[in-house]
Amino acid sequence: MSDAVTPEVGAAFRLMMRQQGLRPEDLIDERGSTSLGEFARASVLPALTAGKRQAWAPYVTVVLKGLADLCACTCARCLSAMNGLGLYGACACVRAGACDCRIQDLAAGGVGVATCLETCPVLGTRELCDVTLAELERVSRWVQMRATKRTLVRNARRARAGRPQFAYDGRSAVEHLRAFLSALYNFAMEDRTTGVTRNLALKMTRYPRPEVQKRSYEADRLEQLWSALYSSGSNDVVLDELIVWFLLETGARRGVLVQIGVGDLLCSSLRVRLHEKKNKVDEQPVTEALMAALLSMALSRGDVLAANPEGLALEEITLEDVRRRRVTLRPDRPVFYYADARTVSRDGATPAREPHPLTVRRFNSLWDRLKRELPWLDEIHGRPHDLRKSVGTSVERVLGHATARAFLRHSAGSVTGTYVAAGPEEAARAHAWLTGVEAEETCAEEW
Ligand SMILES: [Zn+2]
Ligand SMILES: [Zn+2]
Ligand SMILES: [Zn+2]
């Protein structure tokens, strides 16, 4: 207590302490006795949602362990120790324990070091209370530099193949890092044993989101994209077609396709259940044609039949058979499968290889192929997510913002922060307009 404290204040303070169940030693003893790493492992990571833990994992590692052996130099020799995915080995200088790289190559990394031997600081072993804003910024520069090096490596490879370059300054990496640190400080502030009283991460340099490139495709480009599915040398056109069809008709995120199970196909009501971000589940209308195609994919490639009392042949089973319960399907099986070229049939003629459930890797290879076929797509660095944008833009143009949001299942308050009262009916209306199929009677009156 300082001399300036009056007896009244002192008494009030002691009363408050008693009411809170605090002893004087509580304020002193445990303060600053936790390292950042211990606190993160014991209190922060277990409390994060699975999504955040996954998204932040690379940055958690950097904060706790630094970037051992990663140098900040951008010379060709040092870049050769990187691979394009952000994995790296020690450069020749680090291995030799001496660096003769040019100062401009070192400066281009942006972290302000004069040698390859100086690496990213490790915060995990620092006392949580003692970590400074300068240290957080320092780690942030290193994270940004790693992203920059990765882009340089990718661009060099693309340049050799005559493909357009990426412009990336690592700001989203820094934003992820900042988000993790901010969560860590928030937890620390709510835990009086840490002695942390403010969220230092909030003071870190922020990077505004980059100008969003126009990423919705007009009808002619969508048509080109569609025909490139067939001309780009796909080893599984049926799958690629169904992927793009599904994305276009439902406006779903790509993660949805990987997760969707046979039980999510609501055949009678012509709806699919979509597992969206944050464990949100929504139902979306689909056309009879899409439903039949999804069912056919699941039946022909997956082991999805639970009961088939009438002994129907697989390729004869229709949507109607499922609706009328002539066959029963297993709800826990995936819908989408990647059948490799050798899996030709399941009738025993070819050695049966179990088709693999779809993974997000298929999207990467599909879009890579499309980009090789379509220079404009390569130039704008097109992604599967663009299809969602394209559909959203079309819906918005004709049916308005609220309907577009409902169709894309943006939760209220997200993205733009606008609350929009539009629900399943609007989504159904948007789908009806997109596909030219009236989903419900009530919609027909208005159109
Ligand atoms: Zn170098
Ligand atoms: Zn180096
Ligand atoms: Zn060097």
How does this model look, in words?
There is one protein chain. With 447 residues, this protein is mainly α. The protein has two domains: 36-203, no CATH class; 219-446, Intergrase catalytic core (hpI Integrase, Chain A, Orthogonal Bundle). The protein contains 20 helices and seven strands. The protein has helices spanning 7-20, 24-28, 36-44, 50-65, 76-79, 92-96, 103-107, 133-160, 171-189, 219-231, 237-250, 254-259, 288-301, 319-323, 361-373, 375-379, 385-399, 401-408, 424-435, 441-446, and strands spanning 265-266, 271-275, 281-285, 305-307, 328-329, 337-338, 356-357. The strands form three sheets. A three-stranded antiparallel β-sheet has the order 1-2-3. Helix 4 packs across helix 9 (171-189) and helix 8 (133-160) runs antiparallel to helix 9 (171-189). Residues 412-421 and 439-447 have low confidence and may be disordered. The structure holds zinc ion (ZN) (3 copies). Residues 71, 73, 78, 93, 99, 101, 116 line the site of one zinc ion.
Distance between termini? Answer: 75 Å
Q: Walk across the major sheet and give the strand order.
A: 1-2-3
Structural class: mainly alpha
**CATH topological fold name of the largest domain:** hpI Integrase, Chain A
Q: What is the CATH class designation of the largest domain?
A: Mainly Alpha
Mean pLDDT: 81
| Beta-strand segment tally | 7
Low confidence ranges: 412-421, 439-447
Count of helical segments? Answer: 20
- Helical residue percent band: 40-55%
CATH homologous superfamily name of the largest domain?
Answer: Intergrase catalytic core
Which value, in Å, is the CA radius of gyration?
28 Å
Largest sheet: 3 strands, antiparallel
Which band does the percent of strand residues land in? Answer: under 5%
Bound ligands: zinc ion
The CATH architecture category of the largest domain equals Orthogonal Bundle
Number of domains: 2
Question: Helix and strand string, N-terminal first?
Answer: HHHHHHHHHHHHEEEHEHEEEHHHHHH
